[in-house]
Amino acid sequence: MKTNGHDATVALGGKVQGFAENDGAKGTKASGEIRLYAVPEPVMKRAHVSGMSAYEELVAEAGADHSAYWARLAREFVTWKRPFTQSLDDSEAPFFKWFEDGTLNVSYNCLDRQVERGLGDKVAILFEADDGQVSRVTYSELLARTCRLANVLRARGVKKGDRVVIYMSMSVEGVVAMQACARIGATHSVVFGGFSAQSLRDRMEGAGAVMVITADEQLRGGKQLPLKAIVDEAIALGGCDAVKDVIVYKRTGAKIAWHPSRDHWMHEATEGQPDTCEPEWVGAEHPLFLLYTSGSTGKPKGVQHSTGGYLLHAAVTTKWTFDLHDNDVFWCTADIGWVTGHTYIAYGPLAIGATQVVFEGVPTYPDAGRFWKMIQDHKVTVFYTAPTAIRSLIKAVSANDAAHPKHYDLSSLRILGSVGEPINPAAWEWYHAHVGGGRCPIVDTFWQTETGGHMITPLPGATPLLPGSCTLPFPGIAAAIVDDIGNDVPDGQGGMLVVKKPWPGMIRTIWNEDERFKDSYFPRELKGYYLAGDGAIRDEATGYFTITGRIDDVLNVSGHRMGTMEIESALVSCTELVAEAAVVGRPDETTGETICAFVVLKGPRPTGDAAKKIAAELRSWVGKEIGPIAKPKDIRFGDNLPKTRSGKIMRRLLRSIAKDEPITQDISTLENPAVLDQLMERN
Ligand code: WTA
């Protein structure tokens, strides 16, 4: 296999060790040799990509003619209204275009096409509510519901290219809302239901939304949490005059404020609407959605995705990475507010006609056995979740054995997946042994909001596994590791992760910010490669990639992406109290990272109970500004912040202090070394 000049076949051959019980060194480096988990025979036998040789063939095909390879898949996986005549257009790089003169509709591909294939009565979504109630929606029903809502959107004047913000609970209606936008060519921007009114407002304004689709409330872990009230608050903050209509899905029936000129109940508006709705056929490059995500500078970026290329990437990765077959039951536990919920709930599984579980609640309610019970009840065969969830469930088991997966029948499982952050080998081993019963490969999928879908990941029927490594690039993804001028670094040496060639699912631009798109992802010194923003290292023997974490100021807390500067600006926007703030991440066993803030107040530096009280106030301030997920766990106060003589905040030093590490850095340039003792004090 040739990937970027690296021949991993030779390395893999002979070194692959089968999985053996009682083998203390399984899946780890032992005496200079890498021990991998071999692909289980039964998984390999039925896999779409079966065996390393099949993987290598695909990589070779892409290597021989990159754009022809993707064009072949685009014809196989996507139904086009008007076929494309050109695969890749790189004439305006880095604004790449794929399949540009082709026309299609994503909702047609996800719904009508499945009904036409005879899958109308197949369950598309098996929904389990927070309280355990289960409902099933077939492909025919999902199509009808999508059409009814799409008709409402059209009737309210939403047109092709208009932006619709979706601020919804995990629900069938959330998926229907996304599909309905796709059906009429409206570009959706889903905002995670945990974001505050201020964040929602910023995203509505940024996108220039004409409509918001929301629910009265969401139900999570037995708690009723407001959604519609936050939409009202966000609109009241101003700047969203373009929003003409708010469509409200009635989830809990709670009493909510009502603006008759603007608000419409979803059930009333859709009643009597026809079950059919002519899809809007759009060009392949038409923006299917924007999704705001954090970058290293202050303002979140509206990542813009395409229609044709994105759908292709979603469909092909769903099918191959999860090796989905007709009778599989797939469950991705992500929220539709994040990219994982876009690609592997709202689009990928439907595009290939799969049955999937959609879950409203949280993994620990009513108890920490919820995931295992649901896998048992619904006979889930492919389960995809985040390392944070695994780690918190491991913790729950050590507190109470009743939550252990061994108390549940998980024999339906065939493949497990991990996403969003690095999975540490200990969590990997536990997941493999106790959830997967030692027989299910774990696909550790590395990707990003910007990449649209999986980039580096094992294929379960082909790739021997190494805990903690996302292994090899998906066929057609030219991943590589380079130094800061774009030269390949030798295996075994860390560097920056890049992608050397464009791929269909990639980000097209940052909404309204073309220059920022170029600067962020295609910096001049990197020879036109896509810069992921993560560090990575490739193993010398296997060629396997391991992600070493972000190389910019982006934090990953429980798999949620946040910019340190976003949190800093939220803190300093508390102008009554805060003079200056610096935010860094601290490694955390369960959540991956936690947020640690160093704050200089306008008044005197507080200590003791006063410090605790102000820290609590600032935490809730950040919760209101951004959302609860951005609240700093640790807030410390200093008379000022450690700066170099040129005035730069010494973040590396702050990272050490946050970790309570002894300071080894050179602090001779530090203007005010006395402040360090203050910042070491926890509140
Ligand atoms: C991190 C989530 C290690 C990485 C799909 C990336 C990972 C960021 C993995 C993107 C993984 C995601 N191993 N790190 N398997 N998957 N990451 O945009 O730092 O929310 O850049 O997309 O998560 O986060 P985002």
UniProtKB/TrEMBL annotation:
It is an enzyme of class 6 (ligase). Residues 112-503 form the AMP-dependent synthetase/ligase domain. It comes from the Bacteria. Pfam families: ACAS_N (PF16177), AMP-binding (PF00501), AMP-binding_C (PF13193). Its EC number is 6.2.1.1. Acetylated. Deacetylation by the SIR2-homolog deacetylase activates the enzyme. Keywords: Acetylation, ATP-binding, Ligase, Magnesium, Metal-binding, Nucleotide-binding. Mg(2+) binds at V572, V578. Belongs to the ATP-dependent AMP-binding enzyme family. PANTHER family: ACETYL-COENZYME A SYNTHETASE, ACETYL-COENZYME A SYNTHETASE 1. NCBIfam families: Ac_CoA_lig_AcsA, PRK00174.1. This is Acetyl-coenzyme A synthetase. It comes from Variovorax humicola.
